[in-house]
Amino acid sequence: MNTKHKLSLLLRVRRLLWYFIVIILVVVAISMTLARSLISNVGELRGHIEDLASQYLEQPLRIETFDAKLIGFTPTFIFKNVSLLERSSNKVMVRFKEAKVGLSLFNSIKKRELTPKSFVINGINLVVTQNKNNTFKIQGIDVAEFDPTKNISTEDSNELSNWLFQQDKLKLENSTIHWYNSITDKVLKFSNINLVMNNNEERHTLSGDWQLQSSIAKRFKIELDMNGDILNPASWEGAAYVKGEDVNITKFGIPTNLIPLKPASGIYNFEVWANFKLGQLKEIAGSSNVRHLKFNSSKLNTEIKIDKMSAVWRWDNLADGWALNIDRFHYEVNKKVWPLSRVLVESHHRHQPSSVIDIYIDELDIEDANQFVQKIKLVEQKKLIKLKKIDPKGRISNTHIRFNVADIFSDDFMFQTDFSNITTKPDAYIPGVKNLTGVVSTSNILGSMIVDSNEITIDFPKMFRYKIDVNKLTARLDWRFLNKQWQLSTNNLSLNNNDIELNSNLQILFPEKKSPYIDLQVSFKKGNIASAGKYLPVSIMDQELIDWLDTSLKFGEVKQGGAVLRGRLNEFPYLNYGGKFEVSLESNNFELEYLKDWPKMHSASADIRFTGSGFDINILKAKLLNSNINHANIYINDFTEPKLVISGEIDSTTQDIFKFLINSPIANDSRSIIENFKITGNSKISIDINVPISEEMQKTQSSYYSGSVDIQDSKILFPNVNVEFNDINGMLGFSEKGFNSDNLSATIFDKKAKLRIYSLSKEKTYSHHILVEGAIDSDTIKEKINIPLMENSSGTTKWQGIFNFGYSTPKKQIPASIVVTSDFSGINLDLPSPLYKAKNSKLPISFESQFISNDEFNINLSLDERIKIASSINISENAFKLVSANINFDSNNKIKLNDNIINVSGNIKSVDFSEWQDFIKKLDFGSNKASSDFITRDFKIIFDVDSYYITVIEDDDSTLTDKNKQEVSNVIKSSNIDPRQIPEFSGEIRNIYYGTSKVGTLSFDFEHTSNGFDIKKLNLVSDDYNVSSTGIWHIFPNNNKLSYITKFTNVKFVSTNLGSTLTSLGFQSVLNKGKSNSEMTIWWHDSPFDFSVKKLNAEISVNVSDGEILDIDPKAGRLLGLLSLSNLPRRLFGDFSDIFSSGLSFDTAVGKIRIANGIISTDNIRMTSSPAEIHILGETDLVKRSFNQKIKVIPNLTDTTAVIGGILGGLPALIATKILGGIIDLDKAEMRTYHITGSWEKPIITTIEVPVPEEMSDDDEF
Q1: Tag placement on the chain: N or C end, fewer CB within 10 Å?
Q2: Would 311 be classed as within a structural domain?
């Protein structure tokens, strides 16, 4: 048989054998089942089974029921409700619900006996007791809940334990183990345990997992491989792996001998790998994750909550302790996560009863650590409170902490770390810091700190108001506990910032029950005096004094200085000599604003000294404005009652001295006035100032100052009025009550003068005044005051002036003003009426100017009650402009000033406007500009005049009344007046007098247009006549130059008594009665004020009725009257003595009159009367003053006839013609024609004999 055939046969035999075994197993299983149901003696069978099982399990047992199954290919015996018995007493050791014994067929065939393959116990209840000697005992129980006081066996038997761990392979399913710790008297219940044990003499392996109660843990898993007595941990040697999921940490507990804490809650997940030998842990490594952890401590009365904590760690057993290395430590609390860090904790016994712990931390936020320390209260309560107040923040690294578990701050205590960006809050005498970096090392009695920091901040409110920024700080601070007190010292603290560079030595003692004692010595340089207030001990100062320091020390350099602070801090500022505090400075180029509203000192050098009670600033040199201070001292003797005292002397120019006065409360109200003065010369001033600083002192004391100015050979120029005070000498005193001086002298207007400066009390303030008494001559008036019409004056007069500086009261503001008075005695004034004055007569003059602001002032001028002028004037760029004015003549009318209005009122008598107009045109108030800039067209002149007297000047005044001849005035002459540039004017003159005759009331309104004026109204009204008119006054271009036209249109002249009207106008009347209703248009090519007869043009329609021509000359045949305002001829007609009687009444006089360039032409003026009819035709030359007229007289044979001339007109112009010859004989009358030629003075009248036709029309011409 070949090999291949042999192998095939063996395979078939093997397969048959296998089938046989399977069939046998099936048959056995079926047989056992049939036997269980068919055999009637069950007890006999149970006994055989129990014996068989006891033999197999090597332990007596009882079985309630049994079964057999083929589980897979393994025949399995199943025993129900099994009781395991002691060998000696058959007492039940343990019960379990079920035991499954699987047979190994091959081993059984091989050994020819039943050999178990597997052993499974289901539903066993065990108690594992951890004895106080750290050994274990195992026993079974029958109850679901274990009670150690009732269910624990007192017998010292290990039979159950030995049986369990002698099984080669044992599997526990769905079992329960109660773990009882007799040391802590705590019980843990492990349910649903599934565990596999393999035992080989001293070698034991264990693998399994189990579930606990939901309140304890979710799941446990364990792997164990060890040698030794399993009930005696001291003999163990091997390795273990344990994994726990969602373990309730409070049910298991953690070692609490390290910190006095007790877990109150927490969910723990972990994996642990451990190695042990002879019952000692050699190393443990693992990873842990704890959530919702909370610790309680009844001893510390605190609670700590941790949101999450995790780490990878390793624990090693050392010769004298242990070491715990924690890596990737993650700590999260209140949603704040600590930075990942590495922590090493070592515990050493060192032959001591308690352990010493060393903790090494790579990195830690101090804020987190402080919160942790506050919670677990690692230090005593007082220090915890201190830590909480200073609230440290920042980061430490390379930290080493050592302490004894029994007493943290014993001699074993040690702390060492690097720190960076440390921030703390100040507390009492411990300053706060920000951004501090350095190294600290300390034990429980001594230590040191090395600081090397940039850009830090020191906060020490007990000493300083403000936080102090430091650019660089280097120091070594040492401390130690000696003689029951802490000592802090440094020998080289160096600090610099933008304000100062300093070095200091410091020693502070902190006695147990006394205030700290400090000894600080500081030297500094390169300081900023403006920052001195930051470094002064403000706690000893009133707030008002602190404010003064802040506002006063503005700028300056500290050349060098030093400070000393020595004494107990609670005795600061050492007013009773219990200690010493002093700061001294040498300063250069600093500014000092010593008081509000006073000019500051600058460019000063001074020695400054601060003590606990006050300060003293000794000014060595300084400037005040542009003045040099010879010496000054500023001090406060007592900070508790701070009164600032300032004294000093200034030697400078008078200009700078006055600047000081007006830039201080001494004369601040007069600043706007005095700063415009130009002052030269030199003066000296001395001053003392006392000011209570605190509010309490101000309630009982007032500020006061006093001093004097020694004025030497000084000069003051008042630029706006061109007045100089020269050679001023004398002493001027001042105080808070004003000025006083009685011995000042000066030269004013080249004359010696006396000056008195004084102040008066005014409603809780003071007004200042300068009184001047001097003399002035007319030449100086012409030169200095520049009044044009003073050119014709001469002589010298005395004057008195008062300059009143402005001031303010709670209710009103009083502006500065000047009042100058003089009676002008000794001055001859050759001026137009009404200002003419002889040398020895008096003309009281009062001039007052109020300075409302820098660019506005009011002027009031009074001339012996004759003329009163009130005006407001604006100054802009050295040019003067009128704002408003009131001009009042011989009256006391008071009219309010209104912008852009000139009011004219009063009674105008004897005013020569031609002269006064020239005066006004010359006014420029020193501005060198024309008067057109002084008064602009935006103004309006409003007349509200009560009376106005007019008289016309004529070469031949035979037509004027005697009184007219005595009062020749009020003729206005003008040239080149541009109507577009002068103001509008309107108003009323209620009573116009022409000589002694009342003319009437004049009302007028001149309104601007683009070309000049439109005359909206010009009315002259009296009791018996009315003249009304409109018109224009325009300017227009004409051959590259400007031309003018003045035209009166719609002129209506209505009179109910023409004779009376002529008389009221001041003419010798040629008429009696008579009614007029005439119309005319009048114009000339010039301004209204530049009227002349050669320019006159007019068109006049004459209509006069019911009048009578008077006989005012006894000689018949004479022309008795032809008058006009335009100087028309007074005589026109010839001799009619053979026709007329002494008077002639007429019915009408009508006709047309034309005037062209001063030549009057009449167009057949016809006068009708009872005696005759008179026709007038021809010309009258007003310029050459000559006649060329024909007069035709036609007698009325049925009536007594007289011949009358016509009205020729002017403005208005009346031509009155009267021909007298007495009463004529009507029977002899015949028509006659007269031709008048020659001059007005010598007219030539000739008769033209012309026969009259039988029939002649009324309209026939000559």
Answers
A1: N
A2: no
**In degrees rounded to 5, what are phi and psi of residue 543?**
-60, -35
**Per-residue H/E/C for 303-353:** EEEEEEEEEEEEEEEECCEEEEEEEEEEEEECCEECCCEEEEEEEECCCCC
**From CA 762, how far away is CA 778, in angstroms rounded?**
38
Q: Which two tokens stand for residue 526?
A: 């390169």
Of 1212, 889, 1246, nearest in space to 1053 by CA: 1212
* Shared domain check, 1139 and 1004: no
The residue type found at 855 is D
Q: How many CB atoms lie within 10 A of CB 124?
A: 23
How do residues 1132-1181 score in pLDDT, each as one tens digit? 333 444 434 456 778 898 999 999 998 999 877 888 887 778 888 889 88
Task: Check whether residue 1123 and residue 1044 sit in a common domain.
Answer: no
One domain, residues 1236 and 1113: yes
DSSP character at residue 974: -
| Residue that is written with structure tokens 């091989």 in the block | 110
Residue position matching structure tokens 């209509």: 1103
Residues 1208 and 1117 in one domain: yes
Q: Which residues pair with 1045 in a beta bridge?
A: 1034
Checking phi first, is residue 1056 left (phi over 0); if not, alpha (psi -120 to 50) or beta? alpha
CA distance 832 to 659: 46
DSSP 600: P
Amino acid (1-letter code) at residue 786:
N
1125 and 976, same structural domain?
no
Domain of residue 1021: give its range: 877-1055
Task: Count how many domains the chain has.
Answer: 4
Classify the C-alpha dihedral 95-96-98-101 as positive or negative.
negative
Angle at Cα 842 formed by Cα 837 and Cα 843, nearest 5°?
70
Return all residues near 55 (Cβ < 8 A) that are at least 6 apart.
none
1221 shares its domain with 1122? yes
The answer to whether residues 1098 and 1229 belong to one domain is yes
Within 10 angstroms of residue 868's Cβ, the number of other Cβ atoms is 22
Residues 471-518 pLDDT 10s = 999 999 998 988 888 899 998 889 888 888 889 998 989 888 888 898
pTM greater than the 0.85 cutoff: no
Most distant CA pair in the chain: distance in Å?
219
Co-location of 1013 and 1119 in the same domain: no
Whether residue 904 lies inside any domain: the answer is yes
Pairs from 838-847 (Cβ < 8 Å, separation ≥ 24): 839/794, 839/795, 845/821, 846/819, 846/820, 846/821, 847/818, 847/819, 847/820, 847/821
Structure tokens at 598: 């006073």
